[in-house]
Specification:
The protein is an alpha/beta fold and 369 residues long. Helix content is 33%, strand content 19%. It has two domains: 156 residues, Luciferase, domain 3 (Roll); 176 residues, Rossmann fold, CATH 3.40.50.980.
Length: 369
Amino acid sequence: MTSIFDEVLSFVRSPEPERFEHLALKVFRYQFDRIAPYREYCLSIGVAPEAVRALDQVPPVSTVAFKYAELGGGRAERIFLTSGTSVGLNERGRHFVPRLEIYRASAMAHIGRMLFADNRRMPILAIHPTAERMPESSLGQMISWCIEDFGTETSVCAATPQGLEIVRAREFLEAAEHAGEPVGILGTTAACSALFETLRSDGKRIKLPARSRLMDTGGAKGQAQPLDAAAVAELAARWLGIEPALVINEYGMTEMCSQFYDATRFNSAFDAPPGERLKLGPPWVRATALDPVTLAPVENGRLGLLSYFDLANVGSVSALLTEDLGTVERGGIRIIGRTPASEARGCALGIAQFLAQNDLPARAAAERR
């Protein structure tokens, strides 16, 4: 018999949107059966698989829960850790991934569509550690796969877990300027900020070849002076000569095997200034905006807490509730900001109930307030 993992992999490789909800409900039932903390949570709020007939009836789990419970149904091929300081049980969030090939298929198919839409191989500069240097990082793993699938033999990693290797990064960029071959830069917004600041302080502008591109992710995390999307695009144009349509922000999280990317005229029919762009996800993810108090779905275009059902998360929990505020519209999402759980009463109650039903310390819930 075909396993649920093979069904999901087949869908990722050849999406059939009309089959999404049927497969999603099948994935939910599998996860209910195999992941004890998720099952206990569902039962505690009166949800059993036989009563779930539609996708919006599937209970989402807060991404915060990954810090407090093992949300996996079997042996993991890799465990990815969230970034940031430890909280609660003095642990970072952990995402158990039983089959890396599903994460790879999901991540590479969609970044191929959004960042390498011209099917061009090029030298890639990683300004975040690759998997070899930081195996616990899901972003590091994704960058390593990008180099394998879209890079050339002259690709370079110029980052360690301790920070950006600025001399190596500048040597790569200066060589690219003289070679006349477009390049890709992949990393965090914080690393981009450090690179731009170094070029500014040295008064050194680099003119990368046309069709060079930059992907940044992570937003304000790790930045003393946070750059927004518009600032990243402006500085990439000023210091590296990259056109704004090829400065593409990624929205993702360790707890989810799929990502969203800025829609620009390079990769879609949409065209908007940086900071006002829609982000597009792949067809194996469904995004919903939820009322912050009741957690009921709101109409398209209305502000809510963003929730996702990601088929590629088949080995952990697919239904995820974030603390990100945004809208779902025109086939994409728009990120507005972030809200503390204490200001989103439905989300806060959901976290507390999850912790209580899984016999986790009450203080963990208190730390979220």
